Amino acid sequence: MQITLTINNKVHTWNVEKDEFLADTLRAHGLLSVKKACESSCCGLCTVWVEYKPVLACTILSVRVHGKAVTTIEGVPTEAEEFARVLTAEGAEQCGFCSPGFIMNVLAMKKELINPSEEEIIHYLTGNLCRCTGYMGQLRAVKTYLGVAQV
Amino acid sequence: MFTLSDLVQPDNIDTAYQILSNKRNNTILGGCAFLKMGAKRIGTAIDLTNLNLSYIKETDGFIEIGGMTSLRELETHTLLKECFAGVLPKSVRNIIGVQFRNSVTVGASVYAKYGFSDLITALLALDTQVELYKGGRMPLVDFLNSPKGKDILVRLWIKMDNCKAVYLNLRNSASDYSVLNVAVCRLDEQWTIVVGARPRRAAIASKASAVLSQGKQSASEIEDVAQKVSEELSFGTNMRGTANYRKALCKVLVKRAITEVQACKSH
Amino acid sequence: MKSVGQSIRKVDGLMIATGKPVYTEDLAMSHALVIKIMRSPHAFAKITSIDISRAEKVEGVECILTYKDVPKERFTLAGQSYPEPSPYDRLILDEIVRYVGDEVAIIAAVDEKTALQAMKKIKVVYEVLEPVLDFEQALGHTTVVHPEEDLSCNFDIGLQREKNIASSFKEEVGDVEEEFKRCSVVVEDIYYPQAQAHAMMETYRAFTYLDHTGRLVVVTSTQVPFHIRRQLARALQLPASKVRVVKPRIGGGFGGKQTGSLEVFAGIVTLKTGKPALVIYDRKESFSCTTSRHAMRLKVRVGADQEGVIRAIDIQVLSDTGAYGEHAATVLSCVSYYTLPLYNKTRAVRFTGDAVYTNKMPGGAFRGYGATQGTFALESAVNKLAEQLKMDPTEVRLKNISQVGETFLTGQGVLLGSSSLERCIRKGKELIGWNDKFPCREIGKNKVRAVGMAITMQGSGIANIGTASVELRLNDDGNFTLLTGATDMGTGCDTILTQMAAEILEIPMDTIVLIAGDTDTSPYDPGSYASSTTYVAGTAVVKAATELKQKILEQGAKFLGVPSQNVEVNGSGVRTFRGEKISLAKIAELTVLGTGKLQLVSYATHGSEVSPPPYIAGFAEVEVDKETGKVELIDYVAVVDCGTVINPNLARIQAEGGIVQGIGMALYEEVNYNELGKMASNSFMQYKIPCRKDVGKVRIAFEESFEPTGPFGAKSIGEVVANTPPPAIAHAVYNAVGVRVNHLPITPEKVFVGMQKL
After folding, report:
1. Which of A1, A44, A64 shows the shortest C-beta gap to B99?
2. Domain range spanning residue C757?
3. What is the pLDDT of residues C473-524, one digit of tens each?
4. CATH number, residue C122
5. Residue C4 belongs to some domain of the structure
6. Helix (H, G, I), strand (E, B) or coil at C456
7. DSSP-assigned beta bridge partners for residue C304
8. Is the ipTM of this complex over 0.95?
9. Chain C residues inside the 8 Å CB shell of A131
10. Is the domain covering A2-73 a CATH 2.130.10.120 domain?
11. Could you read off the pLDDT of B45-66 as tens digits, one per residue?
12. Can you give the pTM of this predicted structure?
């Protein structure tokens, strides 16, 4: 099946299988930042934006993004690097495997929430699992990035 | 992972239903999260994306929720935060994560009648009707009790009454399934107590609810009613808990939910 | 210091955080054959027939291998120094399958769909045998997990395969029974720390191909490249020189990737077909077909005199090593090595243990490596002892812990070189508010808050066995190359080793390029395990950097035409005391030209005779709902003695991450098998690692000691961080509601049931 989508601000027409999920399609087209780490839609590593909302690329059928805007971290290099600098200044990227999906969710959160409390930040980011860092360093980085006071 | 022979994205619901009834293994696609964990052999998969069923609005004293509305929409919509003491957003907010809730649908969650569903428990405590394409409009409880058939859940209708409702649950890890969930609703003198994730799907404890409604809801009555709920409904054992524990939990959560409803002030 | 002790950003941080394609799958050739593994549905069975004829005919299938197609010599997949203390009990594919998920056939095809399609057409007939699933029944069970006669071991680890014993271990000094008789208080209990899954975010994967000289190149997500090379050489019957193992960026390991779970499958496919091959384990396979922490039963007796001095400790262990014995012996002995030395006023100690085979997924290396299980048991027992002595648990620790300069009964005279454990305990008490909160306080609404604590130790490298080699080179452009075999799995050792070299050479970090993880170019290093890298490879870096600095000085002096004693060297170059100088860049330039004819290189191998322990004092505050048993973790404080902290940010993150894994083990995680031996907890949906909301507050503080044998005084931190949460949280729960949960994890139901029984 053919889909036409805007991927990272460029319009493309791609051939996809009907049962193909977006994560595989994106990786097949060289967007290797998108990671697959589970089969149960639980881990959040594959987070990309569809119409600027954070979704799980592993669970979205590619046919469903026909006519839509899809964004991966490759498409937001300036904002991603800005937050990545804060994250790495904490040492909170560790193995880095969960980082791109995490950053995409952080950037989405920044757009969606205004002056979030710590509780709201944690709630928004809960769907991003991490096994290396224990989450504390990531929270410090997010607070620094959003200009929220560290407690 | 499922397999499929074909996938269609019809422009109108009549076509969607027609294709669905054509073959036994033609299937409506919801969020696909559960589907991809199974090994279903689908004939034609029917994607309802083009049917404009993703909306929440107020219609004639009802809240109308389209079947393709995401759980995240349900969580963040102002109307739902304001109505029923915000019970619906509270019921879904702990499900996995924001990205997950952006990717899964109300229609699939309800249609699949999942035992672990938090949403069904909360909806069942309210005056909720489902609208099926073929089966028409019916109370949620009737839909849940109806035999498995082939239909499309087009939308939900929730009566905008002035009820106050509370949803409580116990989960071990915060993003896990509930070990047990409970929703209690009060509309004037009428109380409705629902328990779900038993692990069977949510059910109304109608007898106990009637007793509660008829009394004065004193502390000892609440205690008594909670006990009755735990006796009226059945509980089972699975990886997350034993039947005995669920029964004990039921008493605690029902008691707390009733007390919390009492404390709800009108806005 | 300019580099060491600074919170420097990881050298790979920005690139991996923004998703650059630097992991194994990203580097695989796009047309590589895709490998899928057919697995046994039975916990114990013999393959009576396997018919692949229909499967082979599927278009796009390149090769299908069964037990008939693989070499017959057994090997081990343990990532340990040779000769491995592990039974050689594996074949690439075996006629006997020993756990649900054990490999039956390897299918290589053009894509995943084809491979899976072909798999459905393979016909296997099994003779289903009765499995032994309960490790408490395994010893002497009629079912023998390894009936084969060609099982072997490099040396005696106590293997008795007919009894299902993979390994036995015993350490004993003095007469514990006599000592217990003399004790005023003796406590005894039995503890069951559970099997835990690593759940690293990047699942297992390996990519293989033949290079331009016909050598097998293996790009794999591994912690142990050199061990993988050796394993593959033996398993595939190749000289090791024909194998090259490359470790790119990897997405976590925690010990799981210290066992070569899948490289051999990709390797054999590439050898048979001549083509590149890629094998990726999905999450389900990573959960159920690799390794987990060893589940154990520990019976602990601790006895003390009236003053609270611990005089006798007796630990009896049964360890579940599952179907294969890679890490059976070493994890078992580490239970003893990382518990008994904590309290050295003892007059008698005894440790006895057996690791048994069962028909389940094998136990493997997992952060803590026996210390975790042992700490849970011993510290829980000591907390029980404190209560019976009516002494504050922190006072019991302070009274009994080993001090610097002392040894311990099983220590063979080795003296403790550094410890700030006493300060760690005091600091931790202060930070958590112990005096106000111990043991518990009601806070209304059926909730009670309480605190608990535990201490732990680990090692730093493996004394007298582990060595690391490092090469340092001054390049013609004035920059440096640091070659090491150390394997960064996200922890940041690439960064801290660079920090150490930069510190010695007095140069900016970005003038050093660190190259690691390639058996062709890296000097030998065992890999990332046993908390070795900072301590062992770090010291090798210090040695090599010191040597190179001296060579730069001597060469600079030569170029300046003066004796070496007349000059000094720093990061800018060499200068005489009179002020004549030559820059480092100039020295570099000249050394590779005819004038110098001597590119400056240094080399060092380091191994230590000691394994100095890092320490942690962990304190937990919980809130227990008395009506439901739900335990909420309010606060966790860990005070760490890892010697000198080389990079505070990275050390802190290691601590936070390890504590959270420990919290997972304490409260949420459980590897679960059904009654047929099938793993039920094989997804993130069923196996719950802590999510963001589960962890409350985790606070880390460092109390630096100075370890004389360590680089800049450093010890290690990688594993010790995982051990304190289970006993500290269990202690807090007991203090809250009087329930001792000895079977981990501590679920609400267990607490609830415990309360009912009181």
Report:
1. A44
2. 417-460+612-758
3. 999 999 999 999 999 999 999 999 999 999 999 999 999 999 999 999 999 9
4. 3.90.1170.50
5. no
6. strand
7. C185, C310
8. yes
9. 198-201, 252, 254, 657, 661, 689
10. no
11. 999 999 999 999 999 999 999 9
12. 0.98
